[in-house]
Amino acid sequence: MIDVEGDLVGEDGAVKQETVELWRRDPVECVEELIGNPALRDMMAYVPEHAYTDAKEESQIYDEMWTGDWWWETQVSTYHRF
User: Fold this and answer.
1) 51-52 and 60-61: which strand pairing?
2) Cα distance between residue 9 and residue 12, in whole Å
3) Which end of the chain is less crowded, N or C, counting CB atoms within 10 A of the terminal residue's CB?
4) How would you class 6 by CB atoms within 10 Å of its CB: exposed for 0-12, middle for 13-18, buried for 19 or more?
């Protein structure tokens, strides 16, 4: 249990505080669990994708990790060398 200070101010003018329970997990185990979960199979993306709001591809949509420039540049530059 840890005490944390929030960004909200109470009626008394004091910053609100709360005691929370902090959990931790190995991030590799978390990723293994997510990737290995068959219920999430159709929700995973491994390939970069560009999405646009218009047919001329002038306005790009950035709404998921795989639509970002970093993901595209990393995978395309790493795996598609000619």
Assistant:
1) antiparallel
2) 8
3) C
4) exposed
